[in-house]
Amino acid sequence: MSLDFRNTNTLWASIITETLKRLGLTTAIICPGSRSTPLTITFAQEKQIETIPVLDERSAAFFALGIAKKTNLPVALICTSGTAGANFYPAIIEAKESRVPLLIFTADRPPELRDCHSGQTIDQVKMYGNYPNWQTELATPALEINLLNYLRQIIIYGWERSLFPTPGPVHFNIPFRDPLAPISDPNINQLKSLTNLENFFDSIPKNQPELPSFTAYSIQNHLQEWQKSERLIIVCGAANPPFPQEYCQAISHLSQTLKCPVLAEGLSPLRNHYKLNPYLISTYDLILRNQQIAQQLTPEIVIQIGDLPTSKELRTWLETTQPKRWIIDPSHHNFDSLHGKTTHLRISVEELANFCQLEADIHHKYLQIWCDVEAEVRQKINQEMKAKENLFESKTAWLISQTLPPETPIFIANSMPVRDVEFFWQPNNSRIQPFFNRGANGIDGTLSTALGIAYRQKSSVMLTGDLALLHDTNGFLLRNKFIGHLTIILINNNGGGIFEMLPISQFEPPFEEYFATPQDIDFDRLCTTYNVEYELISSWQHLQQRLNPLPENGIRVLELRTNRKADAKWRQENLRKLAINNSPSP
């Protein structure tokens, strides 16, 4: 441990760095700039914190987001004053909505240089609105021991607020006076001789606080009500738990205790731990398109684990049938977008499962109907996909779910890739790890987030459309600092395929120019510009060969060229047809 006593700014910056190191910070993303010089110097000199310089602030923020998603630990994000910090905003919104811990440090001019047209100065106080879990402007650095104590404790508090009670972003705005460079100041020597460095950091907690536990009595009351119902389902949306197997085992234990089906979307790890749950339902979106079956399968009780799945069919069905709903999630967020008859148990499903005791095997006909319909619809999907030899969008998700090496992290971009994964991702036992930005559901930062997830990890994959990739091509600037491998499966239909699913697609003009927005980009040349490996995929067999095994280093783009209009027409004609036609009587 060492503090930098060269001047006031270096001392403050080194207290911040040392405090965060002791709290457990491992990674800092630093954008270039002058006003943030003290922070840049101290972070760059700290060997126990990996520091990564990134040119583009928006890309840097999403890269940090990806690392934090993968590690479940806060990542520090540092920039200079002015509009630099404004480029962090989209990632901060996503971090808030998807509950990812980030520590944002925006350097700023001191008070006397504000509101007087001093260069590179904007109002940075609370610049991210209500999105941070907590935000503050630090005092202007000064050589007073009481202020140094304040600095240490406020950083500890910010770290804790980024993790509890719900993970999310925390914003520190830090004014620095000149000199910004580490120029020696003789006035600091007296303070150095009076400071006991070891005692100064003794207050930093070694362990993180724990969330309060529920009593066995309160949980048993809910379990008893659930066990009385024979028409109960568990619904699991997108999830990125730190321990996927334990998460899947907990849901399986709950499902088998209650003898109920588990409707799990493709962004849930459940579909990739299939053997753990005998009652897994993956085709619910297609099943519920058959109105007769949807009515017969109306539940009395729904246990929702975290977010609702993406499926509009499922959401409409739940909104129409209005079953009693329990939402299981330890955070303080409101997960009831349907505003139904809902009870929120702020507890993790892993903790809830500890209260479940398996009873004798009781046959519920309602459960059997779900399982029978799932088997029939899944068989139809497999037959349809095997018969399709031409390259088209929807088969991609189905194929890669069966092709990727075990435990491969995959980042799934928003818009059509997310929908195709929900529709067609086949249950398997590969333990593939899905990642996503489903907090705000935007396409910004797609590539940078995927690179953050892949950083220093095993070989990773991203599934994306062309517009999402083009929206973040500056992410390729990370290539020189990137360690690991990312294969980008690029579905290029020259436009926004998601809009083909909406009523506006029938209005031309203005649909093609203002909604589909084709860009006509040659991705081979684009990849050459960034010195990224590129390959045009010619067949499904070609794609399979490139996905297993995966390389261990570098960034690679595998482009599949598809027909947006034809693929949209196929979905419109076939999604409902894939639902079972003969509806059994419950």
Fold and architecture overview:
With 586 residues, the protein is α/β, with parallel strands linked by helices. It folds into 3 domains: 169 residues, Rossmann fold (3-Layer(aba) Sandwich); 155 residues, Rossmann fold; 192 residues, Rossmann fold (3-Layer(aba) Sandwich). The chain is 37% helix and 15% strand. It is built from 22 helices and 18 strands. The strands form 3 sheets. The chain has a 6-stranded parallel sheet, sandwiched between helices. Helix 16 links the parallel strand 13 and strand 14. The longest helix is centred in the middle third of the chain and has 23 residues. It is globular, with a radius of gyration of 26 Å. It catalyses: isochorismate + 2-oxoglutarate + H(+) = 5-enolpyruvoyl-6-hydroxy-2-succinyl-cyclohex-3-ene-1-carboxylate + CO2. Its cofactor is Mg(2+); Mn(2+); thiamine diphosphate. This is 2-succinyl-5-enolpyruvyl-6-hydroxy-3-cyclohexene-1-carboxylate synthase.
Percentage beta strand: 15-25%
Which fold name is given in CATH as the topology of the largest domain? Rossmann fold
- Cα end-to-end separation: 68 Å
Helical stretch tally: 22
Percentage of helical residues? 25-40%
**Major β-sheet, in short?**
6 strands, parallel
**What is Rg?**
26 Å
Which structural category fits the helices and strands? Answer: alpha/beta
Mean pLDDT: 92
CATH class of the largest domain: Alpha Beta
**Net shape:** globular
The fourth-level CATH homologous superfamily of the largest domain is Thiamin diphosphate (ThDP)-binding fold, Pyr/PP domains
